[in-house]
Amino acid sequence: MASIHSIFALSVLSIASASAAMHNLTSYGAGFLDPTIIPSAGGFAICIQGDIPVTASAQNVRLNYTEPANQLSVTNTILEYLQANTTLPETVLGTAANISGTYNINSKLCLPSTQTANSTTIQILTHGVAFDKSYWDFYSSDYSYVDAAALAGYTTFSYDRLGNGKSSHPDPIQVVQTPLEKEILHELIQMLRAGSIGATAFENVVGVGHSFGSALTVSNTVDYPEDLDAAVLTGFSIDSSGKPVFVAGLGLDIAANNNPTRFGSLPNGYLISSTVSNNQFGFFRAPNFDPLALWAAEATKQTFALGELFTNSLLGGIATKFTGPIDVVNGENDVPACNGNCLVPTNAAAAVIRALYPAASNSSQYYTAPGTGHGLNLHFTAPVAYQHILNFLAANNL
Ligand SMILES: *[C@@H]1O[C@H](CO)[C@@H](O)[C@H](O)[C@H]1NC(C)=O
Ligand SMILES: *[C@@H]1O[C@H](CO)[C@@H](O)[C@H](O)[C@H]1NC(C)=O
Ligand SMILES: *[C@@H]1O[C@H](CO)[C@@H](O)[C@H](O)[C@H]1NC(C)=O
Ligand SMILES: *[C@@H]1O[C@H](CO)[C@@H](O)[C@H](O)[C@H]1NC(C)=O
Ligand SMILES: *[C@@H]1O[C@H](CO)[C@@H](O)[C@H](O)[C@H]1NC(C)=O
Ligand SMILES: *[C@@H]1O[C@H](CO)[C@@H](O)[C@H](O)[C@H]1NC(C)=O
């Protein structure tokens, strides 16, 4: 067994070192504080990873909510949040509160390792709740969108959202909120266009999101219609009927209690799904996944912040000024996006384009991956979904 793994590791490393000679990695490390060079999961990309300081300002909301003292208080908050005719959101959402700061955003710039990178187009990948940027480069090339994109010649930029993974973890109630995260995405896009990341001024930027990351990407197309040349929204719909089932099904724990080794230093406003079964419920659909992928997701699961839960309603809007093409890609059995069935009453992916993108290019597309849950990239169907996305981009000359 060990030999299979070491042969695999060797070949990944040899592809990676061959490609180190092809690209000037010193120059691609520009903008990172502490760049390290690592191969992608399948070795088809060579990546520069490290912190990028991002300065952003936003209008957050003062939340009338103090840090929960214990798990009883967290569970009670979720009960109040989900109860019929809840008044919790209006009690909690206060007045506008300006916020600004410089946050370390841990990021990964990945170049194709088997061919010359096309430095015209970059894809910015924004992950959803319960994951960090590794969602896009999950533990083998079968699941890695970064590898699939690299094989098609694309450079990708993924990052841990604020309060996630190796990025800064500020106050999870007053600071980690959707307005600030939206501005951080906007700033990163400006930096990619200006050449301040990787010493390459990318002319075309494609936004690719998953779930909450798709909601941020949509908000970007609403507020800054010039930022992106195209947007790919995965695990996303305009139907919120599955959200309560999803939130309840995660069985939210205080992250510091759930896993003191990984999260012991975080304040109680950082929450996490409870057990591997809760993870399965929210993100997987059998028999379309390998149980090992579920266990890997559980071992690397990530937190989300109460500030994100309470300000979720501030995201979105109709992108009346966005004229680029949109691609919406869902798993057929996505729980939060579709309450477990994305084909009733109509195709949920098609509905997004009709409802939110009146001015989008008529070359927009959508795709529903059969028998697949919310964690699309962790299912056997991932390669087919990736091919759909990459074909969509090629059809739009990106
Ligand atoms: C690589 O990039 C660095 C920084 O931009 C530059 O100083 C160096 O000369 C480049 N090396 C080659 C071989 O082009
Ligand atoms: C409670 O919610 C239901 C369903 O959304 C709505 O029809 C009803 O008007 C609400 N009642 C009050 C008192 O707000
Ligand atoms: C803040 O929340 C408390 C309940 O937790 C409520 O009694 C109070 O009226 C709220 N304050 C504002 C300004 O909404
Ligand atoms: C918040 O910032 C906006 C501009 O973004 C400004 O108009 C407003 O006066 C600021 N409010 C406060 C309380 O500083
Ligand atoms: C899409 O738009 C282009 C240019 O605006 C137009 O030529 C083409 O006929 C349209 N195609 C469809 C299927 O509507
Ligand atoms: C790079 O991609 C752009 C489209 O984004 C395309 O026009 C250009 O021909 C490509 N360049 C190379 C060298 O493949």
From TrEMBL:
Gene3D superfamilies: alpha/beta hydrolase. It comes from the Eukaryota. Residues 124-379 form the AB hydrolase-1 domain. Keywords: Signal. Residues 1-20 form the signal peptide. SUPFAM superfamilies: alpha/beta-Hydrolases. InterPro entries: AB_hydrolase_1, AB_hydrolase_fold. Pfam families: Abhydrolase_6. This is AB hydrolase-1 domain-containing protein. It comes from Coleophoma crateriformis.
